[in-house]
Write a structure and sequence with these properties.
By secondary structure, this protein is α+β, with helices and mostly antiparallel strands. 60% of the residues lie in helices and 10% in strands.
């Protein structure tokens, strides 16, 4: 799984600072991006591009992924600042030298997630009228949960390429995260020449917060980030960073940080993954389900039935959980976590005939040994209620065991 945003940023920063020095190579001038039109021909090209990107990851082909992502173009975009200074040039080249190799490991991290049983699926493309180009939406799934990557596609004279992506879990584009890293690597004296006093004050506090977090001083990190006063205070990325820092403290502080974000960005679909956690912790399942509706409208992802089913199950609405898991299993039949959740919900609704049918499906279609199924059904975990406890005593299950064991 990709590291959490701040951990990834701090690791990358450490690599950059450790590698600075020596003569930096000259970066090639990026190709000029062409504005695109939404046409059937371009639709076909973009669809094929999106499919190929996901295929490359499943084939463990990081080189093809990197060839489709114009990292030089990305770095120039990320390191473009509102105000320039002549002394920035050398620092910019040193930064690029230190970070380029690290950032190209991005596809390898996605591949490692796939090897651990995760998914990286191309959902759809859409045309962004504001940017005059296409964008590609992917779902990342791992044991840590769901995330979405929204890539920005560009076109040169002879090729399509990616230049950036918006990461839902961090609330910002990868180029913005990289720009913050660049600012963090600059001497304070130079920052003072490219920022106004309020920007400099807040940036210094943000960097102090990041360093405190890295050293394990989570309370100090949260305090420093909470002291921001200017426009930076309400940026999505800062709000997400504050929540992550608060999560290392106590639930009260975490909930306070979540509430602050929700007041500033009410029902923002790109922050839905963070908002959802807030409602679940408060056991406000109705609001959590509403957030999932907003997220599905934004992403078009029916895989969110997994989270809906889990929410209904947690709330005790087992028939609704069965309905959601049934839909999920129908659309993603090979997704074992969804099927096992479906079985638990069937047990809680006492639909034992359907539950026996799922056991047969796992045995016959997926070649799961009956002994393993018995272990799964009958195993007890300390402090956990077995949803199959009543089912185990039914004549139907006993007969199933007699036939297959």
């Amino acid at each position: 799984m990709i590291q959490k945003p701040i951990e990834f940023l701090l690791l990358a920063l450490a690599l950059v600072l450790a590698s600075c020095g020596g003569e930096a190579p000259q970066s090639p001038t990026p190709e000029k991006a062409l504005l695109m039109r939404e046409t059937p021909e371009n639709d076909s090209l973009v669809q094929a591009f999106g499919v190929r990107l996901a295929e490359a990851l499943y084939e463990e082909d990081a080189d093809t992924f990197n060839a489709m992502f114009h990292w030089d173009r990305f770095m120039d975009l990320a390191l473009e600042l509102p105000r320039e200074h002549q002394d920035l040039s050398n620092y910019r080249e040193q930064f690029k030298k230190g970070l380029t190799a690290k950032i190209k490991t991005f596809p390898q991290e996605l591949i490692e997630n796939l090897n651990e049983g995760g998914f990286y699926d191309f959902l759809y493309f859409y045309f962004d009228e504001g940017l005059r180009t296409y964008r590609l939406m992917y779902r990342l799934y791992s044991e840590s949960g769901i995330n979405y990557h929204d890539y920005i596609l560009r076109k040169s004279e002879d090729a399509l390429y990616l230049e950036d992506l918006y990461i839902y879990a961090s609330g910002e584009t990868l180029s913005t995260s990289t720009r913050n890293l660049f600012l963090a690597s600059l001497p304070s004296g130079l920052l003072g020449r490219i920022m106004n006093p309020q920007e400099l004050k807040d940036t210094s506090r943000m960097l102090e917060a990041m360093r405190a977090y890295e050293s394990g001083s989570f309370g100090q990190a949260y305090y420093k980030l909470s002291m921001l006063e200017g426009p930076m205070r309400n940026l999505k990325s800062i709000l997400a960073l504050r929540i992550q820092m608060a999560s290392q403290l106590d639930q009260e502080t975490y909930m306070e940080a979540m509430a602050s974000m929700m007041e500033i960005l009410p029902e923002d679909p790109t922050m839905a993954l963070l908002t959802l956690d807030y409602y679940v912790l408060n056991q406000d399942f109705e609001s959590a389900l509403r957030i999932l509706e907003i997220l599905e409208t934004e992403t078009g992802d029916s895989f969110l039935n997994l989270m809906r089913g889990n929410l209904y199950y947690q709330s005790g609405d087992y028939p609704a959980a069965v309905a959601r898991f049934h839909t999920l299993v129908g659309e993603y039949p090979d997704f074992m976590e969804g099927r096992l959740s479906y079985m638990s919900a069937l047990a809680m609704t006492k639909d034992y005939s359907a539950l026996l049918g799922q056991l047969d499906t796992l045995k016959n279609t997926y070649a799961v040994p009956p002994e393993d199924l018995q272990t799964y059904i009958e195993s007890e975990e300390e402090g956990m209620e077995n949803p199959f406890a009543v089912f185990m005593e039914t004549p139907g299950y006993r007969q199933w065991k007699d036939r297959h064991l």
